[in-house]
Design goal:
Layout: E1 10-12, E2 16-19, H1 23-35, H2 57-70, E3 76-85, E4 88-98, H3 100-103, E5 105-112, H4 121-136, E6 141-147, H5 151-159, E7 163-172, E8 175-185, E9 196-198
Parallel strand pairs: 5-6
Antiparallel strand pairs: 1-2, 1-9, 2-3, 3-4, 4-5, 6-8, 7-8
Helix pairs in contact: 1-2
Keywords: Transferase
GO molecular function: protein N-terminal-serine acetyltransferase activity; protein-N-terminal-alanine acetyltransferase activity
Organism: Nonomuraea fuscirosea
């Protein structure tokens, strides 16, 4: 897309491709949500969106992602990448920031369909966006978080070098939920998998950056 090069941005790892979603991607992503993301007895999300009735969930998910893309601004951006494995959309990995050109700080979030969990794909897809942030965009820090009863997500963070950064207390589904906040410094990150970034240079203004701003990142491809 000539006037919105973000749709040409691709991150690739040995098993995955991450890209901004097309309408067909969102349709397939809704299938993964219907198939299940987590045990119904637990809620890993601050907003319990997976509780929506089955006949409402697909439309709600698609509208949400379209809204995310429509609100993109250079000083307030949100990459809602779909994760593709063996030609199939299997989940979401996001990367977001506000006033990034000043703060050089990003945050991440993600989910995978249950059938694809426990295979190391969560680590691989987060490593991909961290590589984009640190090597491509010149980020200095990255934040994440997970409820203390979500050992899988916390394990991904631990493997990638995050350190504890305090806790927050929330109300989720009428219950107390404790979030472990996490922080990763650029110098502490080494990707466990090779990551290639394609099509980044024309996207830099959409991240609030010039080529000079990102010059301390990796070579652009």
């Amino acid at each position: 897309m000539r006037h919105l090069p973000l749709f040409g941005l691709r991150l690739t790892t040995p098993r995955l491709e991450l890209r901004l979603p097309t309408l067909d991607d969102l349709d397939e992503l809704a299938d993964r949500a219907l198939e299940g993301i987590h045990d119904p007895e637990r809620m890993p999300f601050f907003v319990p969106w997976t509780q929506a009735p089955r006949d409402e969930l697909p439309g709600s998910l698609i509208r949400y992602h379209l809204g995310v893309m429509s609100r993109w601004q250079p000083d307030d951006w949100y990459c809602n990448f779909v994760v593709v494995h063996d030609g199939r959309v299997i989940g979401v990995q996001d990367l977001q920031a506000r006033t990034f050109a000043v703060t050089r700080h990003v945050s991440t979030g993600s989910w995978l369909g249950q059938a694809y969990q426990g295979k190391g794909l969560g680590t691989e897809m987060r490593a991909a966006v961290l590589h984009l942030a640190f090597a491509g965009l010149g980020a200095l820090t990255a934040g994440s978080g997970a409820f203390v009863d979500n050992p899988a997500s916390l394990g991904v963070s631990r493997r990638l070098g995050y350190r504890p950064d305090g806790v927050s207390v929330h109300e989720v589904r009428g219950r107390r939920a404790v979030e472990q906040r996490l922080r990763l410094e650029r110098d502490d990150f080494t990707s466990p998998v090779p990551v290639d970034v394609h099509g980044l240079e024309p996207c830099l203004p959409h991240f609030g950056l010039s080529r000079a701003d990102a010059a301390d990142g990796a070579a652009l491809s």
